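ASSEMBLY PREDICTION REQUEST
Request ID: AP-0331
Submitted by: J.K., bench scientist
Number of chains: four
Total residues: 394
Priority: normal
Notes: Please return the full assembly, not individual chains.
Input sequences:
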Amino acid sequence: MSASDQRRERQKAAKRHAITLTAVRLVLDKGLDAMTVEAISEAADISPRTFFNYFSSKDEALQMRPSWSAVSLTALFQDRPADEPVFRSMRVVAKEIADSFVPAREESELWRELWRRHPELLAKRSPEGEEEIFRSLILAVAERTGTDPMKDSYPSVVVTSAFSVIQWAVRFSWINEDGRTTADLIDEAFDLLERGL
Amino acid sequence: MSASDQRRERQKAAKRHAITLTAVRLVLDKGLDAMTVEAISEAADISPRTFFNYFSSKDEALQMRPSWSAVSLTALFQDRPADEPVFRSMRVVAKEIADSFVPAREESELWRELWRRHPELLAKRSPEGEEEIFRSLILAVAERTGTDPMKDSYPSVVVTSAFSVIQWAVRFSWINEDGRTTADLIDEAFDLLERGL
DNA sequence: TCGTGCATTGCACTCACTGCAAAATTTGCA
DNA sequence: TGCAAATTTTGCAGTGAGTGCAATGCACGA
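STATUS: Completed
Returned structure:
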C-alpha cells in the first residue's frame, strides 16, 4: 500500500467520522424521525448516494466504529499466558471491547446525550461481524482448554455470557451516571460469573 | 370479551399462522431473496396491504410467536417457592422460554429446515418486548434477594446471562442435530453458570 | 500534461411500510 | 329473514431506504 493510499484511508475514515458526528447532532437537534438519509446528506454536504458509499445502512451512521476485529480480539486472547485461567483472559478481552465504546473526550458528552435520549441505539449490535467473533473466540477457548466445542458447552457458555454482560455493562454505565465505569461493572459481573450465580 | 370476540381472536391467530407457514414454505422453495411481501401475499391469497394487518414487518412472518409475555414469565418466577435459590427459579423460566421455540410436531421438520438453511433467522430477537421482559425479571430477582438493582449487579447479571445462554441453547440444538435437546443444553449451561466459570 | 484510478453524483428502479378511505364481509339483533 | 353496525380487506398514493449503473469530477504519478 502506497503512501497516498494510506492518506486516502485516513481521509475516508475522517470523512466517515464527520458524517457520523453530523448525524448525531442532527438527531439531538431534530429527533430520530427527522434523521432521513436526505437530511443527513444535506447537513453533511454530500449527495444521498454518497452517504451509502460510507455506510451500508442508515443506522450504521449512529454507531461507533469498533476498533477491533475478530482476528485482533482472538489474538489478544491467544497471547495471554497459557496458564492463565480462561475466564481471566476473557476478562481482558471484555475490557478491550468495552474500551471501544469510549468516544474521544470532546465527543463524550455528545454520545452520552445521544444514548441517554435513545438507549435503543446502544442495543443495536451488528449481527454479521459478531457471529464471526463468537465463533473465533469459542474456538480459541476450546483450544486452550483442549475440548471440543461441539460436545463441551463450556467454551460457548463462557463466550456467550461474557458478551452479554459486556453489552449490559456498556449500556448501564452510559445510561445511568453513577460513579462506576464500564470497566468497574465488567469487573463486578465477571466476579459474579467466576464464582457462580 | 364476548364469545364471538374470542372466536375472532382464534380465527385471526389461525390465519396469521397460516400466512407464516406459507412464508416459510416460500423461503424453502425460492430462497430468502424471493420472499417479498408481494410474493408471500400472493401465495397466501391475500392482498399485500392485508399482510401488514397481521405482521408489523416482513421479518415477523418468519418468527415463531412466543406464547409468553413479560407478565406471565415474571409471574412464573414469582410463583416459585420463596426459599428456592434464585438461579434455580431462573432455570425454570429459561425452560419455559425455550419451550416456546418448539413447533407443533407436524411443522417441526419445516422449521428445522428453515433454521438449518438460514440460522440468522433464529438470532433475530424482537428488541421491544425483550427489553420489558428484562426489566421485569430483573426487578423480580431484586425483590427476591432484597437488593437494589441499580446498585447491585447480581440481578442484572443473572437475567442477562440467563437469556444469552437460552439463545445459545435454542440455536445450537436446532442447528446441530446431536442427541441433546434444548432443555439438555440449558441444564448444562446453567450448571456451569451456577458453579462458576 | 496526459492518462489512470478512485470518489462523487444523478438517475432510475425495487421494495418495505403507512395512512386513508372505500368496498366487502361478518355479526348482532329485531 | 333482513337490516344496521362493526370489522376486515383492499386499493391507492405516498415516503423513504437501499442498489446498480454509468457519467462526471478529481488527484496523483509518470
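REVIEWER COMMENTS: Chain B has ten helices and no strands.
SIGN-OFF: pending second reviewer
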